[in-house]
Amino acid sequence: xxxxxxxxxxxxxxxxxxxxxxxxxxxxxxxxxxxIQQLESSVGAQLFHRSxxxxxxxxxxxxxxxxxxxxxxxxxxxxxAVADGPPRGTLKLGALESTTxxxxxxxxxxxxxxxxxxxxxLTTGTNDALVAGVAERRLDAAFVAVAPNRPGLSHAxxxxxxLVLITSLAHPIVKSPMHIANDSVxxxxxxxxxxxxxxxxxxxxxxxxxxVLELSSYHAIVACVASGTGIAVVPESVLATVQSxxxxxxxxxxVLSDVSTPIIWRAGEQSPSVVALRELTxxxxxxxxxxxxxxxxxx
Length: 299
Known about the structure:
The chain is of the alpha/beta class. Helices cover 44% and strands 21% of the residues. It has 3 domains: 3-81, Winged helix-like DNA-binding domain superfamily/Winged helix DNA-binding domain (Arc Repressor Mutant, subunit A); 85-159 and 267-289, D-Maltodextrin-Binding Protein, domain 2 (3-Layer(aba) Sandwich); 161-258, D-Maltodextrin-Binding Protein, domain 2 (3-Layer(aba) Sandwich). The strands form 3 sheets. Strands 3, 4, 5, 6, 9, 10 and 11 form a 7-stranded mixed beta sheet that branches. A two-stranded antiparallel ribbon has the order 1-2.
């Protein structure tokens, strides 16, 4: 099985057709078709079904695509690991949306200045989705909310965060879950670690029994809270990135509010790019800690 054939197969699967894949790979379509046929002969299975001028993966193709991603990723890691000189190639990085908005812009700027030959592909998602992405080799590393207790993954804490509860300016002061008994909850979908913090704060009051509006953007969450749609738990650092965040900020118990953001990677498989990112992040995290914080209360 040739890695070049796997790369072409992956491109065809992602693009949904030979012509688009050929354009992406800067090849002629006949060459792409020939390489796909060669791969099918090698594995002894049909990899695609054609429907309305579009190629769809067969069951065998679905299985092979997962392995293709892993094999091509490992090959890229191997090339980077043995290459002399500074890091190069593609770094597939995952991050929480809150970390992406409030922490990563300065780090990306410094990283690209120091390592211009590294191309970062960023994926945002919930804590659980990012952990799975690293474990399943779809990501090289990720900034998550909770260090995973999962074999094969290593982590290092890099940022300290303070979680706060936000409401509209007209909302009464919140000191306990009873003060939001009639409110809707605005939250990221299940898999979000900060959502689980809210659930722990609610205690006996089951989140499933409340009205929950699931959104996938902190800007949207803050805007809905400001309009009086509901309440939410967010990292305090996010509020500084949202213009006109006209919300009231309420404290949570320290045992719940003080959290750290770790970076995770596969143990024993870190590429030079991951090592460089970890070291740069460690050096810059102290600057992030000196960023001004909002005081809890009416805002």
